[in-house]
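Researcher: I'm preparing a figure for a lab meeting and need a structural model of a single chain. I don't have an experimental structure, so a prediction will have to do for now. The sequence is pasted below. Please return the structure as tokens so I can convert it later.
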Amino acid sequence: MLGVAAGTVRELRRAIGGRGFAILAILAVAAPLGSCDYWGDHGHRLGGGGACPRPQLPINSQPQFNDQQREIRALRQRGFRGDFFAQLELARRYEGRTPNDRNLEDPVEAATWYGLALANPAGYEALSGRGMGGRGDRFRMIAHFDDCRTFERDTAYHELNFLLSRMDGNEWDKVRKRIIYVLSTGGADGFRTLARMHDVGFGPFGEPVDDEAARDAGGGKDHPGLSADLQLFPRNDIDAYLYNDLAAQTGDVGAFVLMKDFEHAAAQRSGYAGVIESKVNRWVPPYEFYPPEAAPSGVPHSDESEPQGEAAEVALARIDELPFIHVIDAMRFLGAIPKDGSRDTDVDPREIQSLQAMLGLEQSGRLKPIEKVRAIQFAAANGSAKSQLVLAVMYAEGVGVPMDFARSYDWFAKADKQGSPEAKYAMSSYFSLGVAGVADQDKAKAVVYQIDAALSGFKPSADRLSGILARTAAGSRPEGEREPF
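Model: Understood. Here is the structure written out token by token.
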């Protein structure tokens, strides 16, 4: 392994522990990239050291017509799971640096993955043996890994700043929302990262304030800072507290301790609890799922997130409780199915492949449980009022997706705005009264009856609607003041 003797390997394993050794072992079998010094594409010298080795992709030695798509899929899967080097590689690919990747060029997507890499603790967490009593051969490999990670982060900071400085406000908003969404799919770890990114006690992307790349981005007497990077996630206690609270809501004990530490760190923070509780009850991620956008000749984006926790797995296992006609309706709205139907046998494998291509998924011709959920989500996100109503009920009941009253209410509201009479009935005759403090089971049952008539046997129970009512009422605001979902 890179010429390291077996005895030295054993010493390394003891020195850095199993996890750190596993990381280095993966790196060691991958071919190193870059030289000792690197000049960015935009003429900025990015310091000494060199790029870290990249993970090898599972691509056959014989080139195939869809190699690029397979590579991007593999990288996105790793990127969503927090692979630091996959995130960096995705950013470079979406910059369209090579002729082969020119069709992928997407500045918003490139900036998203640079931001996620900078926010990734794997890029700055301590792994080296420095301070452990020696700097001999056995620590050289680890120290080099630290050096190359610093180099990678410095590069990412400058590339991200270059991209952001050429974007308008709408594109900045897209980058910000995509980063928040991807991190939110990571559960407590992702929410804690978001909390650090909004906390003045950390670097611009949640790293320690003494991180070398973060210090460089902040600027100093001898050089200016990277202003665009520093403005992407404005610092404020409310958002920092919000994301700590969302992490704690996942049931993570460590997140709860961090939230309390944050609350007690400054006197004024103790008064935030009531405001934050309201926001947490009403918070939904910026995207229902990652938008499968792409240039006409590029590879569609895809959501590679996985169900987080037992509740999500149980919800996904219940997806067959959703009448299949609603999946068909979603596919028809998206243009994947030209005909009517109500059963899975009414759908041709080629039509399923068409949907899978839209979603950026492997075109197997058979729908997996998560793909049924994605079909409803994609149709809802693209404006199908019926799919929005279905998705609202799915969140109310915990079918296919974890029970989430804030998201359920959000999709009822979206369906209402789309003109869904059932959602309008729910919002006007039940939810609007409930937010004002009136909880009425008879009205809840009437709403269930109305929705049942529209959704062919797939309806929310009255007690679920009462739960949504209680959740939204707890976050209600003074008359005349509205907060967007």
